[in-house]
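We give the entry.
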Amino acid sequence: MTTAYDVPAERLIDTVAAQFKKEGKVEPPDWSTFAKTGVHKEKSPAQDDWWYTRLAAVLMKVYTDGPIGSERMAALFGGKKDRGAKPSKARAGSRAIARHCLKQLEELGYVSVVEKKGRVISPAGQGLLDNTSHDILKKMAKSEPELTKYL
């Protein structure tokens, strides 16, 4: 059985983000066009559809690291803040973005809440990621026949 660990994460996240955008069940918040993704960034994201990519990346993080809360999720999406002449320091990403993504995934039924622990992947979310990774592996096996043993 193919799991999300069997394919490159970047390909899986891009494919799931495209599915989210195509389905139209998720709408980015109004403020997402102006928001920075953390204090370590100087500008907002350049891509118009960055929200769908972040949503897919959050789903993948819940799959691999769950149970996980918004604070730890924000830390995972953080980075180094440039402080001028002083050494750079690690800063967390936006908790509002992490929280909204987790709420939207919960409304879709891909994530469920475990009391006092955070969010975990639901069977529907695991099925989405595993089935998508199986489709990606099939496409990859056409160009690389040695991958057929993983199907």
Observations:
- Residues 37 and 77 are 8 Å apart (CA to CA).
